[in-house]
Design goal:
The structure is a single chain. The radius of gyration is 14 Å and the shape is globular. The protein is α+β, with helices and mostly antiparallel strands. The mean pLDDT is 93. It starts with a strand and ends with a strand. A six-stranded mixed β-sheet has the order 1-2-3-6-4-5, with helices on one face.
């Protein structure tokens, strides 16, 4: 069964999409989280130009979305990251390593010329298995 969800504990997404697609199958579920950028609850960009601040906010949002479905970062099996400047990868990696303390998920990191919100340095999407 497929459920599209925008959990009430996380600010509504910008645009016409859902934060989470949950697919229940047998005794488990897969969660597909839309790409998250560092927006505060009012839709303003957090930490313009500051990778650590933006990455921290992105993982706060992802954590809240996972939690709303009974998941944690330990349930993440895949992470895709889009960076506007690969030179910032070490700063992003510093925050990511603080979040993923066990075995790391599979991963893809790509440099892009820009994201849909001016000043956004990264966008992160994850897949989790419950």
């Amino acid at each position: 069964m497929l459920v599209l969800d925008n959990p009430s504990g996380v600010a509504a997404p910008v645009g016409a999409y859902s934060h989470v697609a949950r697919i229940d199958a047998g005794t488990g579920a897969l969660l597909f989280l839309s790409g998250q950028i560092a927006l505060d609850d009012d839709g303003a960009l957090v930490g313009p130009g500051d990778m650590v601040a933006q990455a921290t906010r992105v993982f706060e949002l992802i954590g809240a979305l996972l939690s709303a479905h009974g998941a944690t970062f330990a349930d993440v099996v895949n992470i895709r990251t889009y960076l506007t400047d690969m030179a910032l990868l070490p700063l992003y990696g510093q925050v990511r390593r603080a979040v993923f303390t066990g075995p790391p998920p599979t991963s893809t990191t790509v440099e892009v010329s820009r994201l849909f919100r001016d000043g956004a340095l990264l966008e992160v999407e994850v897949v989790a298995a419950l």
